[in-house]
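Hi W.,

Here's what went into the run:
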Amino acid sequence: MAETETFPDRKRGSGVKLVYDLLRDEILDLVLPPGSTIDEVQLAERFGMSRTPIREALVRLAGEGLVETLPNRSTMVANIDFLNLHTFFDALTLMYRVTTRLAATYHQPAELNAIRQHQARFAAAVEAQDALAMIASNRDFHAAIAEAGRNPYYTSLFLRVLDEGRRLLRLYYQSFDDRLPREYVDEHEAIIAAIEARDVELCDRLAKAHADQIVRQIQKFLTRDRRQSLPL
Amino acid sequence: MAETETFPDRKRGSGVKLVYDLLRDEILDLVLPPGSTIDEVQLAERFGMSRTPIREALVRLAGEGLVETLPNRSTMVANIDFLNLHTFFDALTLMYRVTTRLAATYHQPAELNAIRQHQARFAAAVEAQDALAMIASNRDFHAAIAEAGRNPYYTSLFLRVLDEGRRLLRLYYQSFDDRLPREYVDEHEAIIAAIEARDVELCDRLAKAHADQIVRQIQKFLTRDRRQSLPL
DNA sequence: TGCATTTTATTTGTCGACAAAGTTTTGTCA
DNA sequence: TGACAAAACTTTGTCGACAAATAAAATGCA
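Here's what came out:
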């Protein structure tokens, strides 16, 4: 039997954010599978509110490409575009490099601290073999680096790319029994050190290597031979 | 006396797009000045519809950063952040380069054609000294190049940056009596040729030079000495 | 049975209404 | 007069209702 959610009385104006955040998480953690339809009325009942705030949350999600709305028809969770993954890898790599470079130049002590905290959480998640926490803290780690780079244009694109990556990584680790690699922890540490040393070129190289590593892992997963798992 | 707009019967679902497109244009052409407040009820009367579709259009505009919404308070046209223009220049330059490079690699004949058409309109606008048309077609020209590059992540960021640039350029040419420079026409032609030749490195250099040129012009405008125009 | 067409049902887009939050005006007292 | 409080007004966020659009079911016909 499913748990019954209860949403206590909330302040006027908080409903949209509540729905938005929850739907967003459910989409990115693949709780809502790509392509599945979203029912406004059902959500309205689930959250105990009218359709108006639900719709606003959906419009915002659509603006970020996490949801697709067909006119006069249902809105559905955005599909993962496996055919054009190379555009994703390309953007991911460039954004890793650019944001890490900028962080080396513009970071301030407090920001480096925030980055370290996310890294600590990331290391703990890897240690505990907690895939969801690892994916989330990895995203936060790189988002914090982008913040330190202080370019809102890059940050917003990077967040979008990282979110898309969150879905891919979830897919990846689901299929490999959630066994998490430790080399990322060390790579993160090296990146932190390079940012602190304000070594732009080293940051660039490390960011590129880090991106390549991730891209390679995902590609390995996508191109692996699935034939032996077919029943005969 | 102001012209009275009339909006004929429209199909169900078209209202949001109508409002969105019009508000967007008015914001980017500085018809709605940055910082000015937006009245939902007034818009609803103006377009002859209820507040619901107006609100949805505003939510979408907020998602693109063209409008800022204060909870329980008015929503206003986003301000231009003059203090952090360098982040804009940085992103603009990088996106010029990246999208032009990708266009050189991935463009197809039809797309090159579209790019040429925008360039023709751009040249005509410069010839006619029509600043608004020139700004719009310049944006379309570079957007078409991004399209040819086929990376939706880059395209979406680039469009956002170009839109922000539309406001800045409008400001620029308003203040200089809308006298339009012709060198951009030639630079555009060179870029087209480089894309057609699929010369990635040349595209990169030309895009960077083009970006630098624009950045320099805007900076010149922003830092010019305004003292002599003060009344004594 | 298989296909086209009408009926019914579901779902979306829009509306008018209303209450909560915020803003301005009015009123009171020092 | 000037500062503070109360009242009146404006604007926003949410709701329930309804009609247009689509999807599903039922019906008719060969």
